[in-house]
Amino acid sequence: MAKVKVKVLFQDKYDHVTRYQPGSEAEFSDEARVKDLVAKGWVEVIDEAPKHTLKETITAFGQEIERAVIADAMKSIGETVHHAAGIVKIEEKVAELSDEKKVALKSTLGIEDDPVSEVIELVGGKCIEIVSNADGSLAAYGEDNGETVHLAAGEYRSATHIYTVGDAGEVSVAEITDPKPEE
User: Fold this and answer.
1) Cα–Cα distance between 139 and 168 in angstroms, integer?
2) What SS3 state is found at 128?
3) What does residue 39 show for φ and ψ, rounded to 5 degrees?
4) Beta bridge partners of 132
5) Residue 35: in which H helix or E strand, if any?
6) pLDDT score for 135
């Protein structure tokens, strides 16, 4: 909606009855019509209605993602998104995805999960940190002179598990099923 001030006498092109007098004010909702009248020099815009800005980003996985980008990503994982679907509907659709589809969508969007870590107390009182990476691999860290370092190859025992670190840093975990009684 735009409010205009009439500069030249003219008649409404749609109803052919309304006449716009110079110096009078009028309002038009048709943006193209206003541009045409301004271009002809018949009116000048004195007040433009604020344009409503639609939110065009989706909040998913803790990030703001462009609506078009997430719609394309959803299609690439086999999920349909109607072209006229609103922001809320798309956010709901993302929330309803299976865990497998969410992983696929994150991958398509290039979103990596933050690694999950767990501090483990070993037999003898020292602690290590086991980190689960986004790709499912594990990494093991310890402390050396106050600095966090990758653990050296070997076995590390807690009261319930054995953590084996290989020469390349890979970590495997085995549960102790028959713990030895403490002496």
Assistant:
1) 10
2) strand
3) -60, -35
4) 116, 138
5) helix 31-40
6) 67
What is d(CA 105, CA 96) in angstroms, rounded to the nearest whole number?
12
**Token pair listed for 148:** 């966090």
| Nearest to 160, CA basis, from 134, 137, 130 | 130
pLDDT for 6 equals 94
SS3 at position 111: coil
Nearest to 153 by CA among 175, 130, 170, 132: 170
Q: Is the pTM of this model over 0.85?
A: no
Radius of gyration of the chain (CA): 33
3's tokens:
């409010």
Task: For 120-133, give one letter per residue: b (16+ CB within 10 A) or e.
Answer: beeeeeeebebeee
**Token pair for residue 95?**
């929330």
The two tokens of residue 13 are 């092109």
End-to-end CA distance of the chain: 86
Run of H or E including 11: strand 10-11
Please say whether the beta carbons of 9 and 21 come within 8 A. Answer: yes
| Domain boundaries defined on the chain | 2-48, 57-109, 116-175
Task: Note the pLDDT tens digit of each residue in 151-169.
Answer: 888 888 888 888 898 887 8
Burial class for 164, CB neighbours closer than 10 Å (0-12, 13-18, 19+): middle
